[in-house]
Amino acid sequence: MLNLSLGVVVVGAQWGDEGKGRLVDTIASHCDVVARFHGGNNAGHSLHIGDTSLVLHLIPCGIVRKNKLCVIGNGVVLDPEVFFTEVELLKQHGILVDAQNLKISYDTHIIFPFHKSLDAQREMSKHSLGTTKRGIGPCYEDKIARVGIRAKDLLNHNILEKKLAFFAEHQTFDFQEIFSRFFEYGKRLRPFLADVGEILHNQFLNNKRVLFEGAQGALLDVDHGTYPFVTSSNCIAAQASIGCGVGMKYLQDVFMVSKAYCTRVGDGPFPTEASIMEQEIIRQKGFEYGATTKRPRRCGWIDLPALKYASRLNGATGLLLTKLDILSEIGPIKICIGYKDQEGVEISNFSEVLKMLQEDQKVNPIYEVFDSLPKFSEQISSINDLPIEARKIFFLIEKELKIPIRMLSFGKERGKEIYFN
Ligand code: IMP
Ligand code: MG
Question: Residue 412's pLDDT band (boundaries 50, 70, 90)?
């Protein structure tokens, strides 16, 4: 296993779906606490435990492990309906979620049905972004507009009524029904609610290890991603501090996760998107369908300039590389190592690429091309067990990113990883 500091952040380095759920699940076994710090049930973290597959959208993956405390931070937006459905699903799998193993911040903003209808309505318009229609964007909008309803507001009859009345002025919904339903949710949420910043602080003081579980990825970050085709939260490591109310000194290991290729769901630029035929091959082999919306994912090649950019933004201390085995027996394989503009002039940094993409200017990826990788052996315990072609790709990635690859994972199940310390 990896040598870990007390504070470990795992974030996506692409457009989400890098395989974070699986890695967080593995790393969680060496941590005491697992915390989510942004996003909501737009995320979909797939876990494969023995014969069971489970997709968690909201509750941290650590919940499936015994004796772990899970935390939902103030930076998350929480849909109570989804929350209680997930609690029920976990119960059916024999996992009890209660106030002992899960804490939710008092300040977490609540997703209401009118957020979801607004999200869906916009997706029908010409301004659609390909969102997950879970009400994420509208809920964050209300947070920033300072009219949002927080978990603790559900506990107070007068506050909830007053705050909901504001929304009733602009939107049509059954006030009494929503009020009673959410007041009821408040009663059920009450035992879970806490000052999670204080809890995490005390965990650190007691030498407990905390894993911050990122969702989405750097290129979906609302400030640094492919705006406006992004999600509505910050997805980079610094958000772990803000979204849980803990000091930045605790964010010591920052691992960013990338696939050995690249995918994106939803609209927006994707400069290394593969040809239709190549996409189909990668999609089938890598089973690239959205865990939340079941949409087929757009597939393409790993983008090292984008990863370098993500590494800088995150202050990444290591890369966790997933699904290298998916590239076996398909090929030729492309690795994007740079970009050129229409005149053939090299573009030196990725933020310039982002700017050009936003202006609908064409950018041309520069690829290093590799032959198809042979089939991987089932038993890989060190880098020497990898085919030589795969090792070449591994070293090229490390050389370009200038951070070490700390873990390689294969297949779907737990335990198929190799670590580098
Ligand atoms: P929203 O987060 O539902 O507002 O969607 C905004 C964009 O982020 C869309 O392109 C979504 O497909 C994308 N997105 C949101 N969450 C995830 C995720 O967990 N994985 C991959 N893409 C996501
Ligand atoms: Mg996902």
Answer: confident
> Closest Cα to residue 69, out of 241, 227, 221, 194?
194
Q: At 192, list the tokens.
A: 């879970």
Q: 332: cis peptide before it, omega within 30°?
A: yes
Q: Separation of 135 CA from ligand 2 center, angstroms?
A: 17
The ligand 1 atom at the shortest distance from the C-alpha of residue 44 is: 19
Which of 76, 131, 213, 263, when mutated, tests ligand 1's pocket best, judged by the most ligand atoms within 8 Å of its CB?
Answer: 131
- Site to substitute for ligand 1 among 139, 213, 216, most atoms within 8 A of C-beta: 216
The span from the CA of 123 to the CA of 39, in Å, is 19
Query: Does residue 265's CB lie within 6 angstroms of at least one atom of ligand 1?
Result: yes
**Which residues are annotated as catalytic?**
17, 45
Q: CA 205 to CA 215: how far, in whole Å?
A: 26
pLDDT category at 8 given cuts 50, 70, 90 is very high
Q: Is 231 in the pocket of ligand 1 (CB under 6 A)?
A: yes
Mean pLDDT computed over every residue of the chain: 95
Q: Identify the pLDDT of residue 174.
A: 96
Contacts of 344 (CB under 8 A, 6+ apart): none
